[in-house]
Queue: 3 jobs
Job 1
Amino acid sequence: MRSDERTFDLAVVGAGPGGYVASVRAAQLGMRVALVERDRLGGTCLNWGCIPTKALLQSSQVLSLMRRAGEFGIYADNLRADFGIAVKRSREKAERLSKGIEFLMRKNKVTVFSGEARFTAVKELEITDRDGGKTSGAIRAEKILLATGSRPRLLPDVTIDGKVVLTSTEAMLLNRAPASMIIIGAGAIGVEFADIYQAYGTAVTLVELLPAILPYEDEEIAALLHRALTKKGIKILTNTSVERVVVEAGKAKVRISSSGESQELLGETVLVAVGRMPNSEVGGLKELGVATRNGFVTVNEWMESSVPGIYAIGDLAGAPLLAHKASHDGIVAIEKMAKLDDVEPVDPRRIPSCTYCHPQVASIGLTEAKAKAKGYTIRVGRFPFSASGMAITLGETEGMVKVIADATHGEILGVHIIGAHATELIAEAGLAIALEATPEEIARSIHAHPTLSEAMGEAALAALGRALHV
Ligand code: FAD
C-alpha cells in the first residue's frame, strides 16, 4: 500500500454498531475513512449480542406458542425441539448480517483493516495481525474514533470454563439445553437467557443482588415481569448475593446468601451475567494520557476525549451499553467533526431500553420513582393489554402501557411498557419525547384499530383522566 493509501481523515477502531455506523456517516460526509477490526464486522451486537440472542428468543417464542397451539385449534402432537438447530440458525443470522456490513463498507468506500489497532502517536495507529502477531504497518489519520466496545464482566474468583461456568458468549453456543442453569445477574442479558432456556425445559434460577429484576426499569413494570417469569416456572431470588462458585464432578455449586442466611444451589451450568467491562486497554492509549473513569473513556458532549482529536463512543464511553446508543454517539461525533450546524448532543432521556423476554419490556425516559425524586408533580396513565381488542385477538393480554407526564407543563417524562411487541411500541414514545409531546397530543394522534398501539393512546388518555376503554 502506498503511503497516501495509509493516510485518512478518520480512523475508526472497532466495527460494532458504534464504529461501522460512524464510518458510513463519515464517508457520506466526504471523509476518507479507515476502519480497523480485530474480529468480525458487526462487533458484539451482530456477532455475540443483540442479533444472536434475538434469533434464539424467536425460537423460544415459536416453541412457547406451539405449546399453546391448542388454544388456536391447532394440534402439534409429538412436539420436539432441537436447541442445537436454534443455535445454528442464530449463527446463520449473525453471519448474514456481518456479511451485510462488509457490503456496506465497500459501498461507502471505507477501507477496512483486519487486525488489532494500537496507538503509536496521537494521529497514528499500528495494526497487528491478531493470530500471527505480525504488524501490517501504520495508518495515519487526522482524527481517531475509538469504538472498541465491551466484554463480559467477571466475578472475582469465578473461572469461566466455557462448559459449566459460562458468559453470554458461551451461553449462545451450547448445542443442547442443559437440565438446569443458575443465572447470576437479572439485568437484560440474564433475563433474556432465562427466558430462552426456560422455554427449552431448563430449570432456571435467576439470582439478583438488588431488590428487583431489571433493576433500572420502573419498579411496577419490573414487579409485573417478576410475576410473569415466576408463573412460567423461572425461580427468582432477589436481594441475594453469590459468595462462591465451584465446579465439582462437572456440576456447579453456587453458594448464595440472603438476609444473613447461606445456602448452596446445584446446577448443570452457571451463567455469569453481571454486566460488561469496557475494552479500554487499546495499546498506547494510556501513554497518550486519555482520561478514563472506571475504565470507560471520559468524553465531552461531542464524544471527544481528554486528548483533542481522539474520540470514544458506544460501550467504551459508558452507560447505557446499548447498540442504538453506540450508533447515535457515532453519528453525533462525526457530524460535529464535520461542523454540521444542527448537531445535538445525545440526550440520555431519549434512549429507549428494551428487554426481549416474553412478555417484553421497553421503556424510555424517567421511571415513576425517578420523576418524583427529581421533584416533578406527575400524572400517571395506565392501560392494561387485557382491555385491548388486538391483544385479546392475539391471545397476548399480559402487561400494560404506563405513561408518566409532568402535571404542571404536560410534557411526557417517561413511558414504560410490558407486553407483546413492547419493543416495537416504544418507538411512538421515543418520537413523543423527542418532540416534547404531551399526553393530549399522543391521544389526538389517531391510532389504527385494532392495534396494540391503541394502548399507547389510551394510556395517554388515562394520564388525562379520560381513558375510554377501562
Ligand atoms: P462492540 O459492538 O462491542 O464492538 C466493538 C468492536 O471493537 C469489536 O468487534 C471488537 O472486536 C473491536 N475491537 C476492540 N478492540 C480493538 C482493537 N484494539 N483493535 C481493533 N478492533 C478492536 N444492545 C441493544 O441495544 N439491544 C440488545 O438487544 C442487546 N442485546 C445484547 C445481548 C448480549 C448477550 C450482549 C452481550 C449485548 C447486548 N447488547 C444489546 C449490547 C450491545 O451489543 C452493545 O451495546 C453494542 O454492541 C456496543 O457497540 P459498540 O460499537 O460500542 O461495541
Job 2
Amino acid sequence: MSARILDGKAIAKSVREDVARRAAELTARGTRPGLVVVLVGEDPASQVYVKNKDKAALEAGFSVRTVRKSAAISQAELLALVRELNADTSVHGILVQLPLPKGLDASAVVRAIDPAKDVDGLHPDNVARLALGDRGLFPCTPRGCIEICDRSGIPLAGKRAAVVGRSMLVGKPLALMLLARDATVTMCHSRTTDLPAVTREADLVFAAVGRPELVRGDWIRPGATVIDVGINRLGDGRLVGDVAFGEALERAGAITPVPGGVGPMTIAMLLDNTVIAAARAAGVESSPPVVAAGKGA
Ligand code: NDP
C-alpha cells in the first residue's frame, strides 16, 4: 500500500485564495488588511522568511510593510516600535520575526504586542485563550496541520492523535487544537518511554521534533495519517522531515511530504490570521471560529 500524499502546496494555495477573497471583501468595506513584519538584524534565514511573507501578503491584497532595524536596536526602542504599531489602526497584524539577536528579550517583545494583532499567536493572552477554548489568534504552523487534515477530509474527532514534540510554537498548541476538535491526544517528547509504541497506537501522528527521519516506517499504524512538521537540512544539502518518508509512505494512509507539506501552510495561516484580525477590527467575523467544535468553539 502506498499512502495518499497530502499536497501542502496545493492546500496552501486554496487557503490563500480564500484569504484573498475575504481581504477583497474587507477592503471593499473600507478595511484593507494590514500586516507589519518587524525584522531585527541580518539573520539570513529570517531574511528569506520575511521576503516570502511580504510577497504572499501582497498577493493576498494586503497592505504590507517590513520594518527593518539594526541588531544594535535597544530593547526600549523595540518596545516603543511595537507600541507605535499597536496604536496604528491601519495595522491589523504585527509579526516580530524570531529569533531576535542576542541581548534582546523576545518574550518581553511578544508580550508588548496587542493580543488582537498578534498574528503569530504567541502572546500569553492568546496561549490562554487557546487553552480556554476562547476566540483568539493561534499559532500558524499547528493551525496549518489542522487545516491540512480538514481540507483533505481526514476526521479528527474521536481519533487517537500522537503529537511528538512539545514546543510552544508547534507541539503544545497543536495538542490543544486537536483536543478542542475532540481527538484523544498523547503528547510525546524527549523523555517519552517507548515512543514507537505510542505512535503505533495513533490514527494520526504529528511529528514536530527537529530530528531528521526520527519517526520510522514501522512506528506507523497501517493506514494512519502522518503530518510531518520537521524541516531538517542534511549535510548533503537535502531537506528532510522528522519522518522517514519512504518507509512511512508504505504504511500510512496519508502523509505530508517535506518539502511541500506543512511548510507552505505556515505562511497561508499567517495570512488567514491577519484577515481574521482585520475582520475583527472592522467588527465582522470573516471566518468560522479558528478552533471549531467541542470545547474550542
Ligand atoms: P523545538 O526544538 O522547540 O522542540 C522540539 C521538541 O521535540 C521538544 O519538545 C523536544 O522534547 C522534542 N524532542 C527532541 N528530541 C526528541 C526525541 N528524540 N524524541 C521525542 N521528542 C523529541 O522545535 P520546534 O517545535 O520549534 O520545531 C520542530 C521542527 O519543526 C523543526 O524541525 C522545525 O524546523 C520545524 N518547524 C517547521 C515549521 C514549518 O513551517 N513547517 C515551523 C516551525 C518549526 P523536550 O521538550 O523533552 O526537549
Job 3
Amino acid sequence: MKRILTIQDISCLGKCSITIALPVISAMGVETVILPTAVLSTHTMFKNFTFKDLTDQLEPIVNHWKSENVKFDAIYTGYLGSAQEIEIVKHIFEEFADENTLKFVDPVMADNGKLYAGFDEEYARLNAGLCAVSDIVVPNITEACLMTGTEYRTEYDEEYIKSLLQKLHHLGAKKPVITGVSLLPNKTGVYGYDSKTKEYFSYQNDKIGVSYHGTGDLFSSVSVGCMVQDIPIDVAFKIAADYTRDTIKATLNDPKKPWYGVNFEATIPELVESLQMAKSQVYSA
Ligand code: PXL
C-alpha cells in the first residue's frame, strides 16, 4: 500500500485541510499519515476562530518517525500556520524525500486577489521558496501572482497564464499547475507546464459559478492520491477536477447544505469508481 504524508492544519469544523485529506486519500486506498501544523476551531472564514500553533511539535514528531525509518511515497503540503513552518517543511523534504518521493505543494494562502487572515507578503515570499523545491505545485491565480510578484487580474488570457507558469518554473517548480483558470465564459480548470517535456497542458470543465471553501483541498487530495498510484498526471487532474465539480453540484442539490464546505462524503463512492476505472486502464495498458 502506498503511503502519503500530508502536512496541513486541523480545522476541527469546516471541511477543509486534514478533515478532507485524511478521509479522501484513505478512501482511495492509500495510507495517510498526518502532520498537523495548527489546530483551529474552524477554518478562517468563520469569525472568532481559535488557533493553536503547532510549530514546536513538527520537529519532535518527524524525528521520531526518522528513528522508526518511516518512508513516504509522497509528501503533500497544504495550509501551513506560520512562516517558520515553511522552513521546517523544506527540511522535512530534505530528510524524507528521495528521487521516488513526490513532493506536492499546495501553497494555500490566498484567493480572489486577497491573502487569507493571518498571512502577509513575507509569508508569500517564503512559500515561493517551498514551491521552488517541489515536484508539483498547484497555486490558484492569486497565489501564483503573490509568489511571482505579478499583478493579479480577474480578466486574463492564455498568455498571462503561460507567463505565470514560466515565472513559477523560474522559481524552481518542476511542474507548476495553476488552478481555477477560466479561459472560456462557462469553463474552469487547470493549466500546467511540464518543464521536462517543455509542454503546456490544460483541462477545462464546466464552471458552476459558486465557490466553496475546501474545494482546493479536495482537488489536491484527489490529485496526489491518484498520482501516487501511478495514474498519469493528466488523468489524475481530470479525475480530481471532475470529482470536485460533481461534489459542488451534489452540494448545491442538498437543501440542508452547510455554508462552510462541500458534501464530499456523499460523492466518495463515485471517486472510488473513477479511480478503479483509471487503474484498470493503466494496468491493462
Ligand atoms: O481550504 C483552505 C484552508 C485550509 N485551512 C484553513 C483555512 C483555509 C481556507 O480558508 O482557513 C485554516
